[in-house]
Amino acid sequence: MKLLSKLLCIGIVFLGATAAGNAQTIFTFDDISTVGYTIIPNGYGGLEWNNFFVQYAPEATGFVNGVVSPPNVAFNGLGTPASFSSSSPLTLDSAYFTSVYASQDQLTVQCFAGGTKLYDNTYAIYHDTLTLINFNYVGVDRVLFSTSAGALFTMDNMTITVPEPCTLLLLGLGAAMLRRKQK
């Protein structure tokens, strides 16, 4: 009977870890109506945004190189750090970046969970070339972007994955059952 209980616990954890219950979102920013540029509103895509704007790229020198899906791109206002946060953990999968005016710049991406820094990496980005960065930063609730020169950068087609509540429930149930059995 104990073996059956352990196998059941492991099965629940496995189901939770492998369930196709994850929602992937691609932020193209093209559904935000703008003439020129506008701030990304809090709540867009279920996230809280800080210092991120959307630019109608075809009319803006320096921004058009950052377009993956026309016509809009996101950018950091005044070249200062920009961030987004979530009330639940997510995975930052990937995004495309360019430097708006500098021929090359350094983009630093820091990710946090509950105030603890989990990831801190710097990437080269260029003015005339789209750079796809595959992050795979798992379990984060806040992401901060900044440039080395305090310059503008663009971001387009950002992909995040958010676990569905069912997946989180299965993982939690399996973990609780395993802890209970270990006592």
Give structural notes.
It is a single chain. The chain has 183 residues and is of the alpha+beta class. It has two domains: 1-20 and 164-183; 22-162, Jelly Rolls (Sandwich), CATH 2.60.120.260. Helices cover 19% and strands 49% of the residues. The protein is built from two helices and ten strands. Strands 1, 2, 3, 4, 5, 6, 7, 8, 9 and 10 form a ten-stranded antiparallel beta sheet that branches. The longest helix has 18 residues, at 165-182. It starts with a helix and ends with a helix. Residues 3-20 have low confidence and may be disordered.
In short:
The protein has 183 residues and is an alpha+beta fold.
Query: Which percent range describes the beta-strand content?
Result: over 45%
Count of the separate structural domains: 2
Instruction: State the end-to-end distance.
Output: 17 Å
Gross geometry: globular
At the fold tier of CATH, the topology name of the largest domain is Jelly Rolls
Mean pLDDT: 85
Radius of gyration: 20 Å
Q: Spans of 5+ residues with little confidence (pLDDT < 50)?
A: 3-20
CATH-defined architecture of the largest domain: Sandwich
* CATH evolutionary superfamily of the largest domain: Galactose-binding domain-like
Biggest beta-sheet profile: 10 strands, antiparallel
- In quaternary terms, these chains amount to single chain
Proportion of helical residues:
10-25%
Based on secondary structure, the structural category is: alpha+beta
**CATH class division of the largest domain:** Mainly Beta
